[in-house]
From TrEMBL, chain A:
<feature type="binding site">
    <location>
        <begin position="146"/>
        <end position="150"/>
    </location>
    <ligand>
        <name>substrate</name>
    </ligand>
</feature>
<keyword id="KW-0472">Membrane</keyword>
<feature type="binding site">
    <location>
        <position position="243"/>
    </location>
    <ligand>
        <name>substrate</name>
    </ligand>
</feature>
<feature type="active site" description="Proton acceptor">
    <location>
        <position position="146"/>
    </location>
</feature>
<comment type="function">
    <text>Catalytic subunit of the queuine tRNA-ribosyltransferase (TGT) that catalyzes the base-exchange of a guanine (G) residue with queuine (Q) at position 34 (anticodon wobble position) in tRNAs with GU(N) anticodons (tRNA-Asp, -Asn, -His and -Tyr), resulting in the hypermodified nucleoside queuosine (7-(((4,5-cis-dihydroxy-2-cyclopenten-1-yl)amino)methyl)-7-deazaguanosine). Catalysis occurs through a double-displacement mechanism. The nucleophile active site attacks the C1' of nucleotide 34 to detach the guanine base from the RNA, forming a covalent enzyme-RNA intermediate.</text>
</comment>
<feature type="binding site">
    <location>
        <position position="363"/>
    </location>
    <ligand>
        <name>Zn(2+)</name>
    </ligand>
</feature>
<feature type="binding site">
    <location>
        <position position="200"/>
    </location>
    <ligand>
        <name>substrate</name>
    </ligand>
</feature>
<keyword id="KW-0479">Metal-binding</keyword>
<feature type="active site" description="Nucleophile">
    <location>
        <position position="320"/>
    </location>
</feature>
From TrEMBL, chain B:
<comment type="subunit">
    <text>Heterodimer of a catalytic subunit QTRT1 and an accessory subunit QTRT2.</text>
</comment>
<dbReference type="GO" id="GO:0005741">
    <property type="term" value="C:mitochondrial outer membrane"/>
</dbReference>
<dbReference type="GO" id="GO:0008479">
    <property type="term" value="F:tRNA-guanosine(34) queuine transglycosylase activity"/>
</dbReference>
<feature type="binding site">
    <location>
        <position position="357"/>
    </location>
    <ligand>
        <name>Zn(2+)</name>
    </ligand>
</feature>
<feature type="binding site">
    <location>
        <position position="360"/>
    </location>
    <ligand>
        <name>Zn(2+)</name>
    </ligand>
</feature>
<keyword id="KW-0862">Zinc</keyword>
<dbReference type="InterPro" id="IPR050852">
    <property type="entry name" value="Queuine_tRNA-ribosyltrfase"/>
</dbReference>
<comment type="similarity">
    <text>Belongs to the queuine tRNA-ribosyltransferase family. QTRT2 subfamily.</text>
</comment>
<keyword id="KW-0963">Cytoplasm</keyword>
Length: 443, 419
């Protein structure tokens, strides 16, 4: 249920319904966007103002009085999303081993698909025939698609970047694929995701030198090309991605430029690679300092529990990461005190559930010992842990949100850290610093 | 052994052979039952392959009896002994009746490891040798509702010598007697039923001997072993099964091990078999295929032919098993479609039109094809759901057909789809 103007609305709102509520309650809804200087973008905003419904509405439900954290309701075409939110990743149109019913049963309101992978298999033409990615995988809630940009880093051996776009050599059949901003948006238009990401020029966060600046500037130019190429602005939200590596000046320059564009949301990109955590958090907080308050902030590639909690405190609303689902398949179960390697011998005779306080289907029925043994016999063992890990992540975010709404987020952070680490001297330095920067002192 | 509470209540016996009825008195509380002819729920260590409880329970017609096998369990004996409360509780299987077999019916074991005193099972860590003592210790730890006695069934290969077959019959009888002795003296196994195992390879006299001797023992029912591979043709199988069944009491159930193909199931039901192991849907799933054969006998003959022509378009051109017996159980049959095939990449129909399973209600062939091409784990989950639902639906139709005297119609329909 979404509590909005002290009335309980159902969480699922159709685009029409959302716009109706928005129009009726203009005063309560924080308006989107500033008008840009650029003429082309001016025309864009005008077109948007005139168009029927905004496919994204952000309502700030609560703001932490100590940190930069917010709890919001993000109204998207398929349903409302409560933020802060962790978005599980279903790269190829499926969350590995989990049905859409199971995912929905865990309370997931939005998950990810990947443009590069789906663009290759099964391809945009087929997905269009299948009524978009929602129709193809039968997912009723929201979808966010990445642009294919990250594959430039993850598949760097196979990619080549020019002003035109990215040239990939397919690992499947050696064929060359050209992914330009226009092509990426075209594929994402076919996928029909509720949120689309611009194609950005991504460099690894460990790269330094002129390439970083080049990539930042190019990302701005590609953002404009993506905006122009979006054939579906009424139904699909295009987010910009702030780049600039670990260089504060470049980041700031990127922020200044990109926030001039009238996009419904911003992502903080180019981080969560192999960089030092100390640099990482400074770039995150710099970014949120200069992003508009009334638009959602999506920190890409972040999913470790500590990172999530800290970055919420730094002002981020949305997160995605393959880690929880990937690590599950290796038998690693996420728990409030870290993680539990179910496949290790020590759990062979441990008859407790993974987490006695966890309400997920796995913990309600199975013991560590059973799962340990099952890993030797059947793939279902992975699915049990995947379910648990997704539940863990979503429950964590729900608790974070609730604590923000109830004005006790700093206490929540302290309790969370105490549970996660054996003693205060184990607290990661970067987390202590980051939290201190938003006025939260840990013991 | 406490008085056997397992009871076979037959309501119909067709042509003196195929039986329809209910196996009652099952489970700890003796309240559960299994319709017969029926199929057990096949699991790996208590888990239906690929499925968690949520995905499993999207299937509505699941049998009340779950099968587990010592080949999966044996290596965990120590853990189960420390757990103390039996396998059912350990696996989180709350209500089901538990049947424990020796081998995994979906996998043919390596041969040559059986001795006079031992049989071997293969777990994740390799081969484990079981004596009767160890076998019974396992049963005491597992605490099933019923189990098959230890048996030497290594006669499924073609050209097994007469001497070897005779040995397997002798050993199996000895194992049975020893198991029963331990069973009768074990408090932990009070109320638990034992099935004797009939061996005999492909030799009629040995089959008869094994059946006769086993029937003399105080067992609750009979497993028919050694019919696993494709190396025995159906006619011989049927002949041997009939001969065996002639020697067995009418009022005790007969479980045929290692047979799962729909056409073979029908032939064996006609010969008097009551129970089958439900591993066939798993094998179909593992090759990326979906069961699609039609078992609806309610259509009038004309509509049935039209429907058959439609269905056959799907299987035309795909790898088909011909009439020859085949040792490779992983070979695709004509009861299924292969979702790996490129032809399905833009086929937006459900796997089987009219199938009410979760997969068919929510997904399309094109999606399943995509999942297989991209090697996604969800393919196994969805196919297992569908194949399980379809297969157990077939058994429901089989019982229906027996009840309404349409077994011949069903048999013709299924055979037509095989050929």
């Amino acid at each position: 249920m979404v509590k909005w103007l002290n009335v309980d609305w159902p969480t699922r709102l159709s685009t029409a319904a959302a716009s109706r509520y928005a129009q009726n309650n203009m005063a309560a809804v924080v308006e989107r966007g500033t008008v840009a200087n650029n003429t082309q973008v001016d025309q864009m905003s005008l077109k948007k103002a005139v168009s029927a419904a905004s496919p994204l509405t952000l309502r700030i439900v609560a703001e932490c009085s100590v940190t930069k954290a917010r709890a919001c309701d993000l109204i998207l075409p398929h349903s409302a999303v409560s933020t802060p939110v962790f978005m599980p990743v279903g790269t190829q149109g499926t969350l590995k081993g989990i049905t859409v019913d199971q995912l929905e049963g865990l309370g997931c309101q939005i998950c990810l698909g990947n443009t590069y992978h789906l663009g290759m298999r099964p391809g945009p033409e087929l997905i269009t025939k299948a009524n978009g990615l929602h129709g193809f995988m039968n997912w009723k809630n929201n979808l966010l698609t990445d642009s294919g940009g990250f594959q430039m880093v993850s598949l760097v051996e196979l990619s080549e970047v020019t002003e035109e776009g990215v040239k990939f050599k397919s690992p499947y059949d050696g064929k060359e694929i050209h992914l330009s901003p226009e092509k990426s948006i075209s594929i994402q238009n076919s996928l029909g995701s509720d949120i689309m990401m611009q194609l950005d020029d991504v460099v690894s966060s460990t790269v330094t030198g002129p390439r970083v600046e080049e990539a930042m500037h190019r990302s701005i130019r590609w953002l404009d090309r993506c905006i122009a190429a979006n054939g579906n602005p009424d139904k699909q939200n295009l987010f910009a991605i702030i780049q600039g590596g670990l260089n504060a000046e470049l980041r700031k320059a990127c922020l200044d430029e990109m926030t001039k564009r009238d996009v419904p949301g911003f992502a903080i990109g180019g981080l969560s690679g192999g960089e030092e955590k100390d640099d990482f958090w400074r770039m995150v907080t710099l970014s949120t300092d200069h992003l508009p308050r009334e638009k959602p902030r999506y920190l890409m590639g972040v999913g470790y529990a500590v990172d999530l909690v800290v970055c919420v405190a730094l002002g981020c609303d949305m997160f995605d990461c393959v880690f929880p689902t990937r690590t599950a398949r290796f038998g690693s179960a996420l728990v409030p005190w870290g993680s539990l390697q179910v496949k290790h011998k020590q759990y062979a005779k441990d008859f407790r559930p993974i987490d006695p306080d966890c309400q997920c289907p796995t913990c309600k029925r199975h013991s560590r010992a059973y799962l340990h043994a099952l890993f030797k016999t059947d793939t279902a063992a992975m699915h049990h842990i995947t379910i648990h890990n997704v539940a863990y992540q979503l429950t964590l975010m729900r608790s974070v949100r609730q604590s923000i709404i109830e004005g006790r987020f700093p206490e929540f952070i302290r309790t969370f850290m105490k549970r996660m680490f054996e003693s205060p001297d184990q607290y990661p330095r970067w987390a202590v610093d980051a939290l201190a920067s938003v006025h939260v002192t840990l013991e | 052994m406490a008085g056997s509470r397992m009871k076979l209540e037959l309501c119909r016996v067709a042509q003196g052979r195929s039986r329809l009825g209910v196996l009652t008195g099952l489970g700890r509380t003796s309240q559960q039952s299994l319709d017969v002819p029926g199929c057990l729920l096949y699991t790996h260590f208590g888990t239906v392959p690929h499925l968690t409880q949520d995905t499993l329970h999207t299937v509505s017609n699941l049998p009340a009896v779950t099968q587990v096998t010592l080949s999966h369990i044996a290596e965990h004996q120590e853990v189960l002994e420390e757990f103390k409360d039996g396998f059912r509780k350990f696996a989180g299987l709350h209500d089901t009746v538990l049947y424990c077999s020796l081998h995994d019916p979906a996998v043919l074991c390596p041969t040559g490891y059986t001795t006079n005193k031992t049989v071997s099972v293969w777990g994740s860590g390799g081969r484990m040798e079981l004596t009767v003592a160890k076998f019974m210790a396992l049963q005491k730890t597992v605490q099933p509702d019923w189990y098959q006695s230890m048996a030497d069934g290594e006669t499924w290969q073609s050209n097994t010598s007469r001497k070897r077959v005779r040995k397997s019959v002798d050993r199996t009888l000895t194992h049975l007697d020893e198991c029963l002795l331990v069973h009768q003296n074990s408090q932990e196994l009070e109320g638990v039923e034992v099935f004797g195992v009939v061996e005999g390879g492909d030799i009629l006299e040995e089959r008869v001997r094994s059946a006769r001797e086993t029937a003399k023992r105080p067992v609750a029912g009979f497993c028919l072993d050694g019919f696993q591979s494709g190396s025995m043709d159906q006619a011989l199988k049927t002949q041997l099964i009939s001969a065996v069944i002639k020697e067995l009491p009418e009022d005790k159930p007969r479980l045929l091990q290692g047979v799962g193909r729909p056409d073979e199931v029908l032939a064996c039901v006609e010969a008097g078999v009551d129970l089958f192991e439900g591993f066939f849907p798993f094998q179909v799933t593992e090759r990326g295929c979906a069961l699609c054969f039609d078992f609806d006998v309610s259509l009038d003959p004309e509509r049935a032919v039209l429907k058959l022509n439609d269905d056959q378009k799907d299987t035309v051109g795909e790898t088909q098993q011909n009439g020859d017996p085949c040792l490779d159980q992983t070979q695709m049959t004509s009861f299924e479609i292969n979702l790996n095939d490129k032809r399905y990449h833009d086929d937006f129909r459900p796997l089987v039109e009219g199938c009410g399973c979760y997969c068919c209600k929510n997904h399309q062939r094109a999606y399943l094809h995509h999942l297989l091409v991209t090697n996604e784990l969800l393919a196994g989950v969805l196919l297992m759901i569908h194949n399980t639902a379809h297969y157990h639906g077939f058994f429901g139709a089989l019982r229906e057909a027996l009840a309404s005297e349409k077994l011949d119609v069903l048999k013709r329909q299924v055979i037509r789809q095989r050929d």
